[in-house]
Amino acid sequence: xxxxxxxxxxxxxxxxxxxxxxxxxxxxxxxxxxxxxxxxxxxxxxxxxxxxxxxxxxxxxxxxxxxxxxxxxxxxxxxxxxxxxxxxxxxxxxxxxxxxxxxxxxxxxxxxxxxxxxxxxxxxxxxxxxxxxxxxxxxxxxxxxxxxxxxxxxxxxxxxxxxxxxxxxxxxxxxxxxxxxxxxxxxxxxxxxxxxxxxxxxxxxxxx
Length: 208
What we know:
The protein has helices at 2-19, 26-38, 42-64, 67-80, 85-101, 107-130, 138-153, 159-182, 191-203. It is mainly alpha-helical.
């Protein structure tokens, strides 16, 4: 049982850091995570350390504006540590950012986009599995964004698939908006809230 509780503690602390990375006690939480990671068997500890190194490399790439390199660094991190919630969160964040930049009518760009989509969906599913108390509102936002991209890139010759993507995107955004408003966010103070509301307006059924 000790090992199971150790892994759960690491997971819970990583989720706390993902939710509020700027919290006053974040440095202490970070140190606790490191100690817990180092308390495992040597092989597991090495994998955790390498996963953290890739994660930190990804953060540096983000700061430098190298978002593709960041995406792959986070991908390497979660391959080594599948329960690393912060790495999954950053991977999805980066994938969504890149998908929004890619041209929607370029065949070669769409091939690249499908790789990013697949990576993002896998990490989003992992993040949902790790978020046992459903505290991460961002999951709904990312689900909205990924389905919105699918809606945009599904050919008009596939109206049923487009409608499925549209409905899924709306559901993601609506849930995210409700969570943010419940937390006291407003359009003035929250860019993600403004973005979600704009997406919902764009996805609203058009009158014939």
